[in-house]
């Protein structure tokens, strides 16, 4: 595998091309434990060179799906196809897949070099080939000066790199990462995310990361699959998932959002804005992804805290035609460094969260807020 390879998924977005064939096909996978469904007809297509993120909370089924892919669990129905060939009947050690466990699962009595070489030694490769490949991957993960140390002599980030090198050295077709950053502190986690993406792109690897951390999934993934109760709620690029959530669950799970009720007021021809009544006035938006909409139909909209503008009461605000506004009072302020999070009580009695770096807004202040209609995410579950 050449280091000159690049992440073709990031360059070409093969999932958007009808002529592209998925490299990995997870087809209609279902699984029950003691009569309880943990995976419910899950289907995902993953493309060569893609870094796919599987995101969900506790009990969503993401770890079970990971274990089915790795061969540690058998599904009740469905198939897993890699490069055109079903692997469902292959034992875990026969699949072209390697998995990096959340605990890293390093051998405490072995040094870095021996931990990384273990899989190759089990395959009975020559000593010369093992030494060459181990040296290459130790250098790749920047552990040259730590090759003779044992796991307990390493930091959390260094142990993670050892586990990653041990995973990469067997050159699998597909790599599974189970909560890979869970043991790292915030600063190291952010640094390691950039390093992991750079490594994945450099080697042209096809990877899946399973995580409950929304920020981690968005930082690492070319696309994200959001899971709930054993089902895939939505698959899309990070920007799509964040700005165009399919339903209330996705909008609420990915980042923060404020939710308000709405109702369709008038319908125009397809691809033209329709009128939507809200408590803040009428918004005009295009809703092509919703079929069979009717006048009077109830819905809701969500808006992200960072898309809301705040104005001190008494400040003259000239609103454009594509903006709505409301009056509010600041109830709480939480300083977050680069910005602050404001909890507002609207005149309607509802609570609203705003993320802003404004310095002229303080606790218990009467203010008005405004936002653009283009930032309103309309939802119908």
Fold blueprint:
Blueprint: H1 8-12, E1 24-33, E2 36-46, E3 51-56, H2 62-70, E4 77-82, E5 85-86, E6 97-100, H3 112-122, H4 127-140, H5 156-168, E7 174-178, H6 186-203, E8 207-211, H7 214-220, E9 223-228, E10 231-236, H8 238-243, H9 248-253, E11 258-266, E12 274-278, E13 281-285, E14 298-303, E15 309-312, E16 323-335, E17 340-346, E18 351-356, E19 366-372, E20 377-379
Parallel strand pairs: 3-8, 3-9, 6-7, 7-8
Antiparallel strand pairs: 1-2, 1-4, 4-5, 9-10, 11-12, 11-14, 12-13, 14-20, 15-19, 16-17, 16-19, 17-18
Helix pairs in contact: 3-4, 3-5, 4-5
Strand content: 25-35%
The CATH superfamily of the largest domain is known as: P-loop containing nucleotide triphosphate hydrolases
Strand order of the largest sheet: 6-7-8-3-9-10
Distance between the termini: 45 Å
What is the CATH architecture descriptor of the largest domain? Answer: 3-Layer(aba) Sandwich
